[in-house]
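Box 3.1. Reading complex inputs
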Amino acid sequence: MAEPTAAHSRAPGLTEDDAGPLLTVRGVEKSFSGVHALRGVDLTLARGSIHALVGENGAGKSTLIKVLTGVHAADAGEVRFRGQPVAFTRPADAQDAGISTVYQEINLVPLLTVAQNIYLGREPRRRGLVDTRGLNRQAAELVQRLGIEVDVRAKLGSLGLGVQQMVALARAVSIDARVVIMDEPTSSLEVREVETLFGVARTLAASGVGLLFVSHRMEELWTLCDTVTVLRDGRVVHTGPMAALDRVGLVSLMLGREASDVRAGGTTDFGDSHAHGTAPLLSVSGVQVPNRLRGVALTARPGEVVGLGGLLGSGRSETLKAIYGDLHTTAADVEIDGRRVRTGSVSRSLEAGIALLSEDRKAEGIIPDLSVRDNIALAVMPRLSRLGIISDSKVDALVEVFMRRLQIKASSPRQKVRELSGGNQQKVLIARWLATEPKVFLLDEPTRGIDVGAKREVQGLIDELAEQGLAVVLVSSEMDELVEGSDRIVVLHDGEVSGELTGDQLTSAHLLTALAGGTPSDTSTSHPSTSDTGTAAGAGRSDRG
Amino acid sequence: MAEHTATAIESAAPPPAEETPDRRRGPDGAWFRRNGVYVGLVVLVLVNLVITPHFASTGSLRLQLVQVAPIIVVSLGMAMVIGTGGIDLSVGAVMALTAAVIPLYIGYGTLGAIGAGLLAGVLAGALSGSVIARVGVQPIIATLAVMVGGRGLANIMGGQIKSIRDPGFRELGSGKLLGIPWVVLIAIVVIVAVALLMTRTTYGRQLVAIGGNARAAALAGLPVKRVLTTVYVVSALLAALAGVLLVARNQASDPTRLGQLVELTAITAVVVGGTPLTGGQVRVFGTVAGALLMQLITFTLVAHNITDSVAQMVQAVIVVLAVYATVGTRMRRRSRA
Amino acid sequence: MSTVETTPQAVGTSAATRRLQVVQRIQQQGALVVLVLLSVIASVQFDSFATGPNIRSIALQASFLAVIALGMTFVIFTGGIDLSVGSVFALGGVLAAWASQYGTLPALLVPLAVCGAIGLVQGLIIAHAKLAPFIVTLAGLLFARGLLLFISDEGATVYKVPADSGFREFAQGSFLGIGFPIWLVVVFYALGALILHRTSYGPTVLAIGGQEDAAELMGLPVARTKVITYTASGLLAGFAGVLIASYTSSGVPIIGVGTELQAISAVVLGGTLLAGGAGTVLGTLIGVLLLQVIANVINQVGSLNSNWQDLVSGAILLAVVVLQRYLAGRARR
């Protein structure tokens, strides 16, 4: 790194080589072990532009950012930075070139001071040693210029999250960046802090820096950004001026459904609605999780599939985890068949007849090195044993029934689960939970990342389970799956229930509107900037793409 | 149990297996990782048959087996701990502790002394186990503390070498049944017991499940803390048993020397045997073969006038290579928690 | 990995950090308070404790461990661990005593070269092959011990430093009535503090220990920093060996068993978090002194032998890490 003094005091601005767009991405492809994350992505970032990058989970936003910042190398395609083709192999390379990133999780060191964090690795020196006074002075000047009020000698960790995020931005700026990528920088900020952050962002844009801005808080996009690129399934589905889109339009682009164009037949394998009982089997109310859930309530009757709708970060997964006892709640009332379940303990929830198919198959589901057989029997092992000795015949019988019923494709029950395809791994997990004979089955994205065939089978199975009298709660980011699979959809927004769709309202159009923040009956487009929903500090802090 | 599940609609036989996309590094690497230890063992035996005189004599073989038996016993406990993704550095100190306790209780008869020795080990294991599982201290630190503290305690209780003049211990150390030394027989019993524990019991399955994916295991309602606590108790119990065997064989208790660096030998045996340090698998017979292989390497070097010190350096290199082979080029490092 | 947990972590950062700072402060000041209290009690209880010779002896005894613990401090800052220091320390001593027959300079350079090389190789394996530090340094422990037995005829030979060698002066000499090793420790720790606070390396070490991925994303030289840290640890452990060889005029093969634990204990007692990312250099020095005073007190109590020191060290380390977890866990609720 060159003289840091020069680096920071020279305001990032136009130089003569800056004709044309700052950053051009052409046909970038990236796949991970055969799964395409990016398929021919194009993107152009102009000087002084604040460019929104949006998309649902798995759309490829994070992968694109990682390609741009040198964390991943692209498989194909070209990235040009200030007209020159570039291929960064390390984050340090991208930073040295002038592309810096502010991440959602603050990637700074809490126990170092603000000034140390800003210039970490590029400290000003005097006689070979770090010039602490100079460091603090430079940092103070920088934060002042950016309009951030903070004592640069304070330990970063002692500051609020908003200020920390601002420091991260100051670090990004201090390297004389021409492109600043902001990956959900606001997800944990207060409203006031967001305003300061936006002020800094606008100052930067005015000086010619290009900003790429990722956020799940829709309203922010119109406030801050001039251009938007929408990604879906690794492809760019839309690029254009921000103002030309309204909120419903944007949501339909993200979800891949036109509000006016809802196909009648549907694309899923779900049957018609299910006949169900009247008394709720599962009854949940007042679920409080600090910063995430604010009094969520829902019920599910036997034989009913209740969909849980909401955009990223609305608290869908958290609701399921709280019901299952896996998430620490400050308050929650969960009843099965009218009997209260003590929350906060997974094993008690299991005993009460609740099962949770977790969203993250790899991290929270499969035990990769165990066999299909052991994975299926995992949760019921004690029931298939006497005095701690496993009854092989009982396990084999159970495993055979489930492998047959769910059509799990494996060379033998002894095959390791890691060797199965995603769809079959998912079926193994479903089998694990069905073996516990649950009354209530919570399904978090049951068809994510599995092939079309397996998807249809899983969807068929959900119907079948409901017919057998289970109460099913279904979380899915796919509109068709949610709309066609559910008998009722509870819509979450910002950790609260914001609405419910029943009967005739169970259409993609209604759901789109509900997700975009309107009321189910109001299918007209409400202009985002006037909408007041979701301006409070978002719970957009759970799952990100 | 199978009642409601038997309402299955689909009755087609499971279709044939599809391709296996997630197989790591091709079949050759996996095969070698799994069976390399047996190959090495066979090769080394063949080499010794040619180059080492009297290698195949019953006396020589018996001596080899008697020497390796306690190592095998310790290594199996270590393998179980490693299967959970942990590590137990305290096994050598536990052996010393047992050795220190035995002379103190020899007045209560052979069984009384053995019982006291094993109990001392169990207590040490319960200490590390609860600190690791309940408090959440990293296994390496907890067992390191027990290793040094335990050795200190053993020296305080035991002090100098004490010879054990007890007929029971003499029989255990040098007696035979059908020509097979008791020490070897006990090791065989332990091997069979651990193999059964790992394959036939809920405990064994839960143990590897926790090592393979602790988060998933917890979500499946497994008693993670209990399993983690007990695995250190089992490891310490086996280490204590190894201590008993060594005291019996030496007819003496030497807490200062007994079990020095045995933790490293045990870890090597486990890793060479194909059990990954990241947990999730316990290879019982691989571990036994690993212990035999390391013993045979040392024997071969020493039999050809290469000193212990060089053998030690060779062992160090083998440890790193074996770990490298099991980890491969994948960036898999156990997180610290 | 699940991304579901990402932001809650970020949300917890400031609270967690404040908690860590509290834990650290309690430990650091705690160690100091215990050190002072123990010294006062010992002065009252044992006439021989607060005497010039005894204090000098404590300081001298502590200096060897202090040098080793300094290297360990930086290793633990990175979130790693170095179990090889005890063996490398002993190896350094034997090499120094052996090389002293060729002069003072070889007695200094040979052990540093060999021990530095061991540290370097360990660092390279840890940083580039990404093997767990404990297993690599455990193998290093075995290797160094093997090498030392090899050059000392399986431990049978104890090399003596020639009586006329200037090398003896190195640790036996004194300046202003204070032994050279103590001066060296003062210089080393001042340098250590300077490096921690006034170079890029210091904060980088803490950043790696705090969150390695973040350090990588910040573009910091993670691998190089790790290699430097393990090399430095090897060098310092070897240098402690040089000191002890000069001090005892001999290279004793059996020393250094369990020294790694003492070094780790000192670091942890000094308020450095075992998980990495936080701590001070001065804290380690306090930790070393505390351990040494405990050892001295155990010696003063005539009925206790040195084995008690091992027992007490083990117990103290366990107590401190349990306390660390407990305080951290309690603040989380």
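In summary: Strands of chain B lie at 162-163, 176-177, 180-181, 252-253.
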